[in-house]
Specification:
It contains 12 helices and 29 strands. By secondary structure, it is an alpha/beta fold. It starts with 9 loop residues before the first helix and ends in a 5-residue tail after the last strand.
Length: 550
């Protein structure tokens, strides 16, 4: 189903992005990224593989230039308008790569049908000289002329990762609203993960997320807290505007994995935020923070069984999938998630060792989890499938069973294992629907892209497009002190460096629009210039295109 976010309420945004979906945390703390082999290029190259596996969303790392420059993973953000496009903090790229490479990652993820969720920090900034003063380079590389400078009055206190914003400041609110709006338009994302949300007052965050393009974004917050506090934060404090990572459930799953068979499986019944508000719960078995600080060392398989067959919006950790050897296990569970695990949850059995629950939608699935390390368990449980129906175990480990005259099934769950019973021979494959992306290139003195200059072509940006697809542009530009002969000029050059389109627009043009078909797959250079103008021309170039899937 295509996501027409403009047409729906916030509640509908949540249901669309999370429905029958699985998110991948597309990075980890020590992920290797160099200028020669940037992480953005790795994500682009693997986007088709991820979509085919069943991932419907990609959570990408922080994108802003940070205090530690190319060494930083992005959690010490410095400049709100530097995506790896200004020569600051000793580098042009961020740790993960350049703005051009980042925009290609988003575009290729969209071409492979995935949503893109951006890791965003709006709680603090870092990198001043000890004076709480921040100034940035502009598009010409001039120090102190960049947009959204900050001073001592814009911060309230310090915490381990930088200066916490003064959330009572209108200047801070206006600046973050504008910069986050610019960020969404520049990349074409579908969601945010809000880092360190506990530092941000409810009202400030609600206000921020109600502005411009932000109000169309799915949002999930990071808040390490108990179920009651977390529920109050998202349900009452944010009026369900955001979901939350389910840390209480993660803690319970970690206890199960480390319990060596002594964990009480009844603790999973309605555990965590998932048990209180499944529509707001983003469930996970591990992430980059927990893996570094409180890792689940072994027996994580049942944790993934639970999050990928339960309600909520499951998130898979990169290292679990690609590094820790769990790919085949998770792939099978993602198939079960997409093919079978639909509808509300009914708990059918719970004791110290065995938990059985059922997703009662169509076709639905009965899931049994046994944490006893030595012994299998056999029990008769109620199902929604009706009387005398044959059921197949999609975990691949147990023989078919048949419900009795009351719709009950006798199932056997192996030691430290699971079963997933549903109607036989379900056929399913993840459907990849390619989407185009719209990315805006804003040219202005105080940003990272030069305005249109008189008689001089300057780079506006790059896009990575699929042969035969439409390249559509919509450009707004200022006309300050224009003469009748003044013009804004645009051109696009193809992968062979030959100009494929060049246009001149005068002061009478309301909005510069047009389209061409991409003659080849590859990088396209967008350039702007001006003719017979008294001063550089600010512009907003919206480029819609479709990237290749591979």
């Amino acid at each position: 189903m295509r996501f027409f976010l403009l047409a729906f309420s916030v509640t509908m945004i949540f249901s669309q992005i999370t429905q029958a979906g699985v998110m991948l945390q597309g990075f980890y703390w020590e992920a290797e990224s160099t200028p020669e082999k940037p992480w953005w290029d790795k994500l682009s190259a693997q986007s088709n593989e991820l979509a085919k596996a069943g991932f419907t969303a990609l959570w990408i790392p922080p994108v802003l230039k940070s205090a530690s420059g190319g060494l930083s993973r992005g959690y010490d953000p410095y400049d709100d308008y530097d995506l790896g496009s200004k020569d600051q903090r000793g580098t042009i790229p961020t740790h993960w790569g350049t703005r051009d490479q980042l925009q290609r990652t988003v575009a290729m993820s969209r071409a492979n049908g995935m949503q893109v969720v951006l890791d965003l920090n709006v709680s603090h900034r870092a990198g001043d000289a000890g004076d709480k003063k921040y100034s940035y380079k502009d598009a010409y590389g001039v120090d102190g002329k960049g947009r959204f400078p900050k001073g001592p009055d814009d911060f309230s206190r310090d915490f381990p990762y930088g200066r916490v914003f003064n959330f009572n400041s209108n200047y801070v609110m206006d600046g973050l609203r504008a910069s986050c709006d610019w960020l969404v338009k520049a990349l074409g994302t579908q969601g945010f993960r809000i880092d360190s949300a506990k530092e941000i007052p409810f009202d400030f965050l609600k206000n921020l997320l109600s502005h411009g393009e932000l109000q169309k974004q799915y949002v999930v917050v990071e808040n390490w807290d108990g179920t009651d506090v977390l529920y109050n934060y998202v349900k009452n404090g944010l009026n369900s505007r955001a979901g939350a990572f389910d840390f209480p459930l993660w803690s319970t799953l970690r206890d199960m994995a480390s319990g060596a068979g002594l964990f009480d499986m009844k603790r999973l019944v309605k555990a965590g935020l998932l048990g209180r508000a499944p529509d707001l719960a983003v469930t996970f078995a591990e992430n980059d923070d927990t893996d570094r600080g409180f890792p689940t060392i072994k027996n994580k398989e049942l944790s993934y069984v639970y999050i990928l067959t339960s309600e909520g919006y499951p998130s898979v950790y990169w290292k679990d999938y690609f590094v820790y050897g769990m790919k085949n296990h998770i792939d099978r569970l993602m198939w079960i998630n997409g093919a079978l695990a639909n509808g509300a949850t009914e708990y059918r059995w719970a004791d110290d060792d065995l938990l059985v629950y059922e997703r009662t939608g169509s076709p639905g699935v009965v899931v049994g989890m046994n944490d006893n390390m030595q012994s299998s368990r056999t029990e008769t449980v109620q199902t929604h499938f009706g009387p005398n129906v044959e059921l197949q175990d999609y975990s691949g480990g147990q023989p078919n069973v048949k419900t009795d005259g009351e719709g009950k099934a006798r199932i056997t769950v192996p030691p430290n294992g699971y079963v997933a019973y549903s109607v036989p021979n379900v056929q399913y494959a993840p459907q990849i629907i390619p989407y185009s992306v719209t990315q805006e290139f804003a040219g202005a003195n105080d940003l990272d892209i030069l305005p249109a200059q008189n008689g001089k072509w300057n780079k506006t940006g790059y896009i990575y497009a699929q042969e035969g697809t439409l390249l559509e542009w919509e450009i707004n530009y200022e006309r300050n002190n224009w003469k009748q002969s003044s013009q804004y000029l645009m051109r696009i050059s193809g992968p062979d460096n030959k100009v494929v389109v060049e246009k001149a627009y005068d002061g009478a043009t309301q909005v510069a629009k047009g389209s061409i078909k991409a003659p080849a797959t590859g990088w396209y250079l967008l350039e702007s210039a001006a003719k017979d103008v008294a001063e550089p021309v600010r512009f907003w170039w919206k480029q819609t295109y479709q990237a290749p899937q591979l």
